[in-house]
Amino acid sequence: xxxxxxxxRTIEVRDPGTVIVLDQAKLPHEVSWLALDxxxxxxxxxxxxxxxxxxxxxxxxxxxxxxxxxxxxxxDEACTMLAASRPTAxxxxxxxxxxxxxxxxxxxDTQVDVADAEAARICDADVACCEAIGDHGVALIRAVAERHxxxxxxxxxxxxxxWLATVDWGTAxxxxxxxxxxxxxxxxxxxxxxxxxxxxxxxWELAQHGVPHTVIADNAGGHLMQQGKxxxxxxxxxxxTRNGDVCNxxxxxxxxxxAHDNGVPFYAAVPxxxxxxxxxxxxxxxxxxxxxxxxRYLAGRGDRGGTTRIAILAxxxxxxxxxxxxxxxxxxxxxVTERGITSATAAGLAAxxxxxxxxxxxxxxxxxxxxxxxKDRR
Length: 378
Ligand code: MRU
Description:
Elements: E1 2-3, E2 6-7, E3 11-15, E4 18-22, E5 33-36, H1 39-47, H2 54-70, H3 75-83, H4 90-104, H5 111-147, E6 153-157, H6 174-181, E7 186-191, H7 198-208, E8 213-216, H8 221-226, E9 232-235, E10 239-241, E11 246-249, H9 252-262, E12 266-269, E13 275-276, H10 293-296, E14 297-301, E15 307-311, E16 324-327, E17 334-337, E18 340-342, H11 346-352, H12 354-357
Parallel strand pairs: 6-7, 6-9, 7-8, 9-12, 10-13, 12-17
Antiparallel strand pairs: 1-2, 3-4, 4-5, 10-11, 11-16, 14-15, 17-18
Helix pairs in contact: 1-2, 2-3, 2-4, 2-5, 3-4, 4-5, 5-6
The structure holds 5-S-methyl-1-O-phosphono-5-thio-D-ribulose (MRU).
């Protein structure tokens, strides 16, 4: 997508031994690219959120494996170190499993080349997947636009599930870009998303494309929904259970509750790489607890330019910082996947992805026989 008017991907191969990533720790104040040339640098970039967003974490880890092998490190060491870098986004395990499988089956002297090629393939597949999510999801926006005579469709999103969080297009924002490209008027309410403020990344990337948007404090969404100012909520996911529960950035659940109470449709954009077919219930998902300093400090542009960090809490104040929560499937109107839109149910996901669901056929649909959800919405 666009960075200062130029088409870029968030991760690019500069030369076989160097991968460059758009440094999200510096955005939105500074556009800067970070060079990764070994396993340690890659694991560090993921852990410290220089790259972030579930699909991009997976794609970066895939390149990390290739960089590790090129540097003489073992496949096992690379996968173990990268897998430990962030615990919740399942795309990380998905990408590492894929790399391990492909690399382990080829002769040692071809492993580096195969790793490079597979990492590139994962990146290309992510772009195609996200674009397909956009093509399916735009129907939701178009339907609202048609119902309301073309007035701007009001979409609320949480965190950043845009192209910054993927290789290109994004997941939750892909339908918005598709709508914008198709000339459908759309306005985005952007949750600030404390403590890491990923909403500022969303605002930045929407601005790069001229999509109208307004940043709101995290606490404002419920009020806007009560006032009828939100037509649709679209969020991303870091891990979706095979039954349709959606684990996403902390605060997503509260927005889903408010949406449910106000009859606002609530959808997650779910690439299949974000579905954990081994997990059926929310309690099985590990929730990352991040450092308390993310709450204690704020970073921003100082009056004299440059990025400044200020403390807003005493270092002795106890803080808790769970980074994700799970929205139970009963609160989801539906899931937008690369193969189409479906209900947040085991049956809905299995119908779209029978090849995965078959592996977990033993795990029965816990909702079988329950009335379909999402019928009570606007
Ligand atoms: O901690 P982050 O910024 O990596 O969390 C990102 C999110 O929660 C996104 O919504 C999710 O990864 C989907 S990105 C397409």
